[in-house]
Amino acid sequence: MEELTDLVRAAADGDEAAWSRLVTRYLPLVKSVIRSLGLFGADGEDVAQVVWLRLVEHLKDLREPRALAGWLRTTTRNECLHVLKNSRRAVPVGTEFEPRAAASDSHEVDEDLLQAERHQALLAALAELPEHQRNLLVLLAADPPLPYAEIARRLGMRPGSIGPTRARALSKLRQSPAVAALLEKSTEVPR
Amino acid sequence: MTTPQPAADDQLLRELGAALRSVEPITDQELATARGAFAWRTVDDDLALAALVFDSSIEDRPLVRGEPVADRRTLVFEADTVSVEVDATPDAVLGRVVPPGRADISLLGVEGPVSTTTADDMGSFALGTAPPGPVRFLCRTATTRLVTDWVRL
After folding, report:
1. pLDDT tens track for A139-184
2. How many C-beta atoms lie closer than 10 Å to residue B109's C-beta?
3. Which of A73, A182, B77, B130 could anchor a disulfide with B50, C-beta 3.0 to 4.6 Å?
């Protein structure tokens, strides 16, 4: 977390490179929230723009870097709700748009929501990892899988250190409060 | 200390991959927009930030003034000593500064100032229609200067 604390502080103090690195880390989380609420394309990009503009001014209020993920989720969700409310108002009564619900039964919607929640917990935890661990997990999660030799080359690591770093990174991911909570109640992800 | 748990690790990594793929592709445009937001960072230490604390399109509460009205969105921004309340309709942006008093009000977009007006002795002001895209209010009262959170009206 020290690295993340430094990034947030540096960005708040005007370091643009630190801001870029923060954005790279957290963009997947923001986008996941937007998509889980059924917004895509230009609507989604508009929401994201307001979220980033607002975050720039709120960086200095974030005393605890782990609060960033929660702040982003809440702010993004609220902006999506505003857009959805406007689009609902624009359609005739009786054909109201319900995000993701149109073609699915409620069970599928529940499943979708649970999955989105799990994805967002993982993406938030990933964003909080030290950069070398984060970069490694992103490459290791690629589908189709990349050979270790290729991953080692891209990251400038010794192939022999990939296994131990992978284990440490995943262990850290598992310890993140949000992921730990999901693992507690999940049957699909073994502990 | 890390306890090796190969099967669980593989499963966690698969879920992480699914999570990352669910938001792909992250486009250059998305990254550029996010990075570009930094250019609007407020560098003026004397300019207070008035945070968005209420948005009628997200939550309903027994309203500031009367019943909620269709097509009217009420926003409240709060700084330490001053707050700005805004009613946005399709035709106009009406607002008031609290505590009431004269103030210079500007509506700012990402391209620059959109419009400017003066709040009367009661703190009330009116601006024309807001442009599409993010906007914020800049407000100068007798005692303070503040800028609000960005919103889309």
Report:
1. 999 999 999 999 999 999 999 999 999 999 999 999 998 888 877 7
2. 16
3. B77
CB A28 within 8 A of CB B17: no
- Which chain B residues are closer than 8 Å to A78 by Cβ? 55, 58
Cβ neighbours of B48 (radius 10 Å): 19
Which residues in chain B have their CB less than 8 angstroms from residue A82's CB? Answer: 55, 57-58, 73, 152
Which of A56, A57, A122 has its CB closest to that of B15?
A: A122
Check CB contact of B54 with chain A, cutoff 8 Å.
no
ipTM of model: 0.91
Output DSSP code: residue B79.
Answer: -
Q: Tell me the pairing of strands B47-55 and B145-148.
A: parallel
The span from the CA of B108 to the CA of B135, in Å, is 5
Burial-class residue B56 by CB neighbours within 10 Å (0-12, 13-18, 19+): buried
The residue of chain B nearest to residue A170, with distances taken between CA atoms, is B9
Cα atoms in the Cβ-side hemisphere of radius 13 Å centred on A141: 24
**Residue-wise pLDDT tens digits, B104-153:** 999 999 998 999 999 999 999 999 999 999 999 999 999 999 999 999 99
Q: Report residue B45: phi and psi, to 5°.
A: -65, -25
CB pair distance less than 8 Å for B58 and A52: no
